[in-house]
Amino acid sequence: MAFEGLTGRLQSVFSKLRGKGKVTEEDVNEALREVRLALLEADVNFKVVRDFINKVRERAIGQEVLKSFTPGMVVIDIVNKELTELMGGTHSKLARSTRPPTVIMMAGLQGAGKTTTSGKLARLLQKQNHKPLLVAADIYRPAAIKQLQILGEQIKVPVFSLGETNPVEIAAKAVEHAKENHLDYVIIDTAGRLHIDEELMDELKQIRDAVKPDEILLVVDAMTGQDAVNVAQSFNEQLELTGVVLTKLDGDTRGGAAISVKAVTGCPIKFAAMGEKIDALEPFHPERMASRILG
Ligand code: GDP
Question: Is 198 left (phi over 0), alpha (psi -120 to 50) or beta?
Fold first, then answer.
């Protein structure tokens, strides 16, 4: 599983604490120094690390914690709770429009996993008895339309495509098509580029203004750590994202993006992708992720 590096280090810090019958303030400070280093090495944003350590220290020292029966365990529990808070506290649900279809716009840089994730999300919704429509609005990457069509065929979800025409028109017509055919979710796979540029953002804004999506989800590659967080921040400033999807967590040994993206951008992580297969997408639960990270 992912985060081996971070989990291993935290476990060794905690096993020292856990073993102690008596924990002093110095023990806590020592443990937190090591936690801090582990988080920085995991590529967690340094401000996020600083605030996190301060919060844990405040709660762990000066209270009744150190006098408690199992002080080490209490400190570990505080770390767990603060880590959960950092990643959003509770699960943030996908929006559902009271006037279907619910429109979801998928954005992201090329290679982040946007097209694959669109297919996975359609699959997830289909399993919940919804009727999704996939929309091929990434008209620049030649293989993207075909890739989405193949995914659609695989899971038997319709794919709306008008070839390489205007993506704004494609998106608007797709929503109409969904209404006429009683499809309750529209998932729009928009164009990605290698870098964030004005042209890309303008196009995304035009699509957003045309279809007024209920969700604008940014797909980011967790393996890119703080780069993913920076990408999320830029997209959020331009588009006001409603959520983030972290992909490639199966290959992420560090965990920096997962831990800091919510704290830095304010956008909740709504889904996590952990593999290339069509079923490898899960709703993101901060408390489960914290437990996974702490091992
Ligand atoms: P796009 O350019 O953002 O649309 O990216 P694609 O959807 O084409 O994905 C790029 C590559 O990443 C493909 O080879 C996918 O199979 C792979 N990929 C996507 N999500 C995941 C994931 O969660 N785990 C792994 N290991 N690979 C993924």
Answer: alpha
Interval between CA 113 and ligand 1 midpoint (Å): 4
State the residue for tokens 């199966």: 250
Q: What global pTM score does this model have?
A: 0.95
Q: Is 163 exposed, middle or buried (0-12, 13-18, 19+ CB in 10 A)?
A: exposed
Mean pLDDT, the chain, whole residue set: 94
Structure tokens at 61: 């020292």
- Distance from the CA of 183 to the center of ligand 1, in angstroms? 26
Ligand 1 binding pocket (C-beta < 6 A) is 108, 110-116, 192, 247-248, 250-251, 273-276, 280
% residues pLDDT > 70 (the chain): 99
ipTM here:
0.99
Give the chain's end-to-end CA distance (angstroms, integer).
Answer: 10
